[in-house]
Design goal:
Elements: H1 9-12, E1 34-37, E2 52-57, E3 65-70, E4 79-86, E5 91-96, E6 111-119, E7 123-131, E8 140-148, E9 151-159, E10 164-165, E11 184-190, E12 196-207, H2 212-215, E13 216-220, E14 224-227, E15 232-241, E16 251-257, E17 271-276, E18 284-291, E19 302-311, E20 321-324, H3 338-348, H4 351-357, E21 359-362, H5 371-374, E22 379-382, H6 393-407, E23 417-420, H7 438-444, H8 447-462, E24 468-469, H9 493-498, H10 502-507, E25 524-528, E26 550-553, H11 555-571, E27 576-579, E28 583-586, E29 594-595, H12 600-610, E30 616-617, H13 631-641, E31 646-647, H14 652-664, H15 670-686, H16 706-719, E32 721-725, E33 737-741, H17 748-752, H18 772-778, E34 782-785, E35 798-804, H19 825-837, E36 840-845, E37 861-866, H20 873-879, H21 929-946, H22 949-967, H23 973-987, H24 991-1004
Parallel strand pairs: 14-20, 21-22, 21-31, 22-23, 23-24, 25-27, 26-28, 27-30, 33-34, 33-35, 35-36, 36-37
Antiparallel strand pairs: 1-12, 2-5, 3-4, 4-12, 5-11, 6-9, 6-12, 7-8, 7-11, 8-10, 13-15, 15-18, 16-17, 16-19, 19-20, 28-29, 32-37
Helix pairs in contact: 3-15, 4-14, 4-15, 7-16, 8-16, 13-14, 16-20, 18-20, 21-22, 21-24, 22-23, 22-24, 23-24
């Protein structure tokens, strides 16, 4: 557990002595101090994997600003490292030694020390060192801390014996769980969050002489050892040494059971002592066995601590716990209905245990792994980019199993429910199958395919031990300036509803009977309600312009546009719902804008009451912090509004304590708590977590498999929307010489977008997959590539320019927050150069429409490629005619920013391309013009009357192709409005009226 660093006596004199005299001379037998950093410019500011200083943080505002500053009072030399910070989530800085250079050997020294200019804030600062492994990003992390409770320069000394192993952000299972110090890769400091601050640091060095208690450690195989009543627990104790050399001196271990919740009649007491003699090989183990006793009583779980005293070596960081499993209680009986199991368990729980079940923490924020049991936590999550090291399926499973093991040390052994944002595949995992983002799935208009993408995602997520997915997003995006536009299936609630088949892909059947399967997960409908309708300029979150803003609607608009998808989700058996950060302002209700996390009328009244939602409501990341009032008010307001579990990533201790206090004060009713916990426990039972809390990895071999990637490839192909195709330029022929250019032609990170490996995503080769350029070459294309179109352009039959956006997520991507809807200058230049030299096709890889303005006339073929994910082969499939273009616009493509927001059904509707637009290839367009449209209308009305959905869709599609062929690339408001409305009518089952509107568009073309 982090602790305040010990300061040697010389440091305590620092305030009384001149800086230059404050450090005492080393003892006669101690090695001279070894400098690590003097901050005189010898170490550059850099980024991994080069050697240097670099910053990091939870979002773009969190990394501190570092600089080297000349100071007359510098403890060492002329310069110090100084910085400013204002951290809302987490942030700090690291000095990494280059990954391609030998690691440093610190094993001869007692500890690490440095000068720190205290600001007397009283805040704790974590100090971390990187030990062992192949390089600094595959090393073990060991941490301690010190308090900034002084003013002026002070020498901080951190003995290596104070450092404890971090259980998060680790090579899972560790390299050896021993602070070896022979392969060190650097250090890092985590600065305090929640307040502005500054710091200065100087003279980092190694000091003192190591002793055996550092070189040797005794470790246990696990901190928790569950055992059935009457069974025998075996606790393995291992001695390990720095450099794996034999012990220099003997190590003695004394052990004794006692002090836990188990009584003397529950086990046979164990007591004894053994010694690892001098010369013992590193890695030698001894086993201590503790035998438990059977009785006839049904009981909750009981703990038996194995107390250890170690001399001659560092003792284990935690006392091992033998846990006699709960047994004989009704809630453990799988033959009973879930409702009875829930009622029985709830009746046995204390208020503190119930409050713990309502608490969700970020895994990286746990101050100690034992907090899972100490606070009876109900859930952990991985935020975007919060992954184990290495980021592999095996590491995920081991990490989560380790967390679940901790939950076994609680009275009722209630398993954790672990959640991730797998919003387009298991996107946090390197090597997973990354699907197109929802905007691309919306373009497919294919409910069966949406379900298959959900099924692949669920299988890959559950195979890593994760049973809960914070997806799908059921927002109805109404303004492309929104940085989350790509998380939506589209602007039409009917389109969103039609693709909620993804819920069955994730969860299985609506009654929840499939949730316990090893290839299904609990799904989450988000963000309730109206997040896609926020007004531009209404956000008050940092530099965001529209995300987390205010949605202003009439009651009718709220019902028809934003609530409709949630009613469908409830009918489909959605297991959890997440409210939106945004505020809702309903005309005439007299409340004004109210944060959704506080809207009891919508959560308790509409969602749980009118819609009959029986799952549980989970808050968004630290969202209750945005509610007005103090912390206690935030807690009671959100819980009373109907939130059942609160995502408090870093405040899990405070939340549980405050919630208990609010209940005892009568401000939150016990009935509300029981309702919340019942809902949570119900889903845990349905998921089978009580019987199988640990990862079932039998499906792990299928993660990123050819079969899964085939589904993503089909989704990528069907998502491509052909907006223009003058002269039938597409599909390409393998015989053609193709000149490929553009920033997004050969970038797997750009084509996958945000929420890929990290929260914001990033450009570059971040995960296995096939770029569009690679796919074109695989398809047999005769391709030459010049990213910036600087290579000669003569001698080619056709050009393909792949341009668009770079990754972003949430409000970071809002237009006006460093983003716009224009192509970059480099992309514009590439388009202009290629399209001036040859016939050209332009592919726009983006999360939303991009404004192409007067360039459209120079472009022969235009494709909205959206964010296709890792399977660029799907894009090549339609480019080279292996599959036809069939995608349709899920959102309106505007002519200019001035038109925004623009959506199907608007009274003024004159876009570049209307909602539903999408040319096709390899498909014969019916002849006969208006005569054929009349016949299609008759047949469509008949299909509507008989409920023949497939026939109706086919008939409307044929009518749409006729209209598109006539309209061509020249779009007018008279064509666009009825055309877009026809697609909405098709989705709502009004096939006859859809053809009528298409006929109107045909006449206007």
């Amino acid at each position: 557990m982090p602790r305040t660093a010990l300061l040697v006596s010389t440091a305590l004199l620092a305030a009384l002595l001149p800086v230059s005299a404050a450090r005492a001379a080393p003892a006669a037998d101690a090695p001279a101090p070894v400098p690590v950093d003097r901050f005189e410019g010898e170490v550059p500011f850099a980024s991994q994997p080069a050697e240097g200083l670099f910053t990091w943080g939870g979002d773009s505002d969190d990394p501190p600003a570092l600089r080297l500053a000349e100071r007359p009072d510098a403890p060492e030399g002329q310069q110090v490292l100084t910085g400013d910070y204002d951290i809302s989530g987490y942030g700090g800085f690291t000095h990494d030694f280059a990954a391609n250079e030998p690691a440093h050997d610190w094993s001869a020294h007692r500890g690490i020390r440095f000068w720190w200019e205290g600001q007397n804030t009283g805040r704790t600062i974590a100090f971390e060192i990187k030990d062992g492994g192949a390089h600094g990003e595959a090393s073990e992390l060991w941490t301690t801390s010190f308090a900034d409770d002084f003013s002026g320069w002070k020498l901080i000394e951190l003995p290596f014996t104070d450092f404890v192993y971090r259980t998060d952000y680790q090579p899972v299972g560790g390299i050896d769980h021993v602070l070896g110090l022979t392969g060190m890769w650097g250090y890092a400091l985590t600065l305090p969050a929640g307040t502005k601050g500054r710091f200065a640091m100087d003279g980092v060095e190694l000091y003192g002489t190591a002793d055996q208690s550092l070189r040797a450690s005794v470790t246990t195989d696990a901190a928790v050892h569950p055992v059935e009543e009457g069974g025998t627990a075996s606790v393995r104790l291992t001695v390990a040494t720095t450099g794996s050399r034999p012990l220099d001196e003997p190590v003695t271990v004394t052990y004794r059971t006692g002090g836990g919740s188990a009584g003397t009649g529950d086990y046979v007491p164990a007591e004894g002592e053994f010694t690892f003699p001098a010369g013992t090989a590193s890695g030698t183990s001894r086993v201590v066995r503790v035998r438990t006793l059977k009785d006839r009583a049904a009981e909750a779980a009981e703990t038996i601590p194995l107390n250890l005293t170690v001399t001659g070596a560092k003792a284990p960081a935690e006392t091992p716990q033998i846990v006699v499993d709960a047994h004989g209680l009704p809630y453990l009986n799988t033959k009973l209905p879930v409702q009875r199991r829930v009622a029985d368990l709830l009746s046995r729980m204390s208020l503190e245990e119930k409050a713990g079940q309502m608490t969700q923490a970020e895994r990286g924020a746990l101050t100690a792994p034992g907090d899972i049991a100490a606070y009876s936590l109900g859930s952990l999550l991985s935020g975007g980019g919060s992954t184990p090291t290495p980021n592999t399926p095996e590491a995920w499973a081991k990490m989560i199993d380790g967390f679940q093991l901790r939950a076994q040390a609680t009275r009722f052994q209630i398993p954790l429910i672990y959640g991730v944002d797998a919003v387009h595949g298991h996107n946090n995992l390197v090597g997973a199958t990354v699907m197109p983002h929802n905007i691309g799935i919306g373009a497919t208009r294919d409910p069966r395919l949406a379900e298959r993408t959900g099924a692949v995602t669920a299988a890959e997520v559950r195979a890593t031990g994760v049973p809960w997915d914070f997806a799908p997003c059921l927002c109805v995006t109404r303004d492309e300036r929104w940085g989350r536009s790509y998380e939506s299936f589209g602007e039409d609630p009917a389109l969103v509803q039609s693709l909620e088949t993804v819920i069955q892909g994730l969860q299985g059947r609506a009654d929840g009977r499939d949730l316990s399967r090893s290839d299904k997960v609990l799904a989450t409908a988000k963000h309730f309600v109206g997040d896609g309708g926020t007004a531009y300029g209404s956000s008050t979150t940092g530099t965001y312009t529209i995300d987390q803003g205010v949605t202003r609607v009439t009651r009718q608009q709220l019902e028809a546009v934003h609530l409709a998808p949630y009613a469908t989700a409830v009918d489909r058996g959605i297991g959890s719902v997440m409210p939106s950060y945004s505020s809702l302002d309903i005309a005439g209700d007299g409340q004004g804008p109210v944060k959704m996390h506080a809207r009891a009328d919508m959560i308790n009244g509409v969602l749980k009451g009118r819609m009959g939602f029986d799952g549980f409501v989970i808050s968004d990341w630290a969202a209750i912090d945005q509610l007005p009032g103090d912390w206690a008010s935030d807690v009671r307001t959100s819980v009373n509004a109907g939130l059942d579990m609160i995502m408090v990533p870093y405040a899990y201790k405070d939340f549980r304590t405050t919630l208990v206090d609010e209940v005892r004060a009568g401000r939150v009713s016990e009935r509300r708590i029981d309702d919340a916990v019942s809902r949570i426990l119900t889903q845990k039972f349905r998921l089978g977590l009580f019987e199988h809390p640990y990862a079932d990895t039998r499906g792990a071999a299928e993660i990123g498999s050819a079969a899964h990637r085939a589904v993503a490839r089909q989704a990528a192909a069907e998502s491509q929307v052909l907006l223009k195709n003058a002269g039938g330029l597409l599909p390409l022929k393998p015989s053609q010489k193709v000149y490929v250019a553009g920033s997004n032609a050969d970038d797997i990170g750009n084509q996958s977008g945000g929420w890929t490996v990290t929260w914001q995503g990033s450009s570059g080769n971040i995960t296995p997959g096939t770029t569009i350029l690679q796919a074109m070459r695989k398809a047999g294309g005769n391709v030459t590539y010049s990213k910036d179109a600087s290579a000669p352009t003569s001698g080619y039959d056709v050009g393909v320019v792949v341009v668009g956006e770079t990754p972003y997520a949430e409000g970071v991507g809002d237009v006006g927050n460093g983003h716009d809807l224009e192509l970059s200058a480099a992309d514009q230049a590439a388009v202009d150069r290629v399209c001036a030299a040859m016939r050209c096709a332009v592919l726009i890889v983006s999360g939303r429409p991009q404004l192409i303005g007067d360039r459209l006339g120079a472009i022969d073929a235009l494709v909205a490629s959206w964010l296709p994910g890792t399977e660029g082969d799907g894009v090549a499939d339609v480019l080279y005619g292996k599959r036809p273009f069939t995608g349709q616009l899920p959102v309106t493509w505007p002519r200019s920013v001035a038109q925004l927001p623009i959506n199907v059904g608007d009274t003024a509707y004159d876009p570049q391309f209307p909602y539903g637009w999408g040319l096709t290839t390899l498909t014969r367009v019916p002849a006969g013009g208006e005569r054929t449209l009349k016949a299609l209308g008759v047949a469509a009305r008949a299909a509507e009357r008989s409920g023949a959905r497939e026939a109706g869709r086919t008939l409307v599609t044929e009518a749409r192709l006729i209209v598109q062929q006539k309209a061509g690339a020249t779009m007018t408001a008279a064509v666009a409005a009825p055309f877009a409305e026809a697609d909405h009518l098709l989705l709502t089952g009004h096939y006859g009226k859809a053809v009528e509107r298409l006929t109107e568009a045909y006449r206007a073309a």
